[in-house]
Structure formats: C-alpha cells, structure tokens
Design goal:
alpha+beta
Amino acid sequence: MIDSGTISKIQKAKMYAEEKDDRIRFNSFSVEIAGENNRHVTTFDKGQWSCDCHFYATHAHCSHTMAMERVLGPMLPETVPAAAA
C-alpha cells in the first residue's frame, strides 16, 4: 500500500514533468548518439556543447549537438544558441 506522502510526491512529479519547460534546466550531461556510421559522445557543460565527431572539431556544431538542442528545447539555459532550423 502506498502512503499519502508517496502519493503526494507522485502527483508533484507529474506536475513537474508536465511543466518541464518552466521547471527543468540542464546544467551538464553526456549522451551517446548512434550516428549513421558510428556512435558519438555529445556533452553539455556550463552552456557549452561538445561532440567527439570530426565535423564538430572544425565547425563547433554538428548534427549530434543540433539534435540534442531540438530534443531538449526550452529545458536548456537561454544563453545557449538555438540550433539552425
């Protein structure tokens, strides 16, 4: 049986998830993205993206970082430039 405190926390978690654009901001994380040829590690730290792919090394952006910007949208800090449309 679930106690009332746990029920309250579940309800609050649902509310936070529904209001994610206003409540959640990522500070840092690392993800692995399965590209067409290889897997790439894309990181976000203190408002800056990085990726271990060759394209990122010469352009400071890539399809992997732009994909993550699209996935996370408004949950990223506002100081990060949006991906090209």
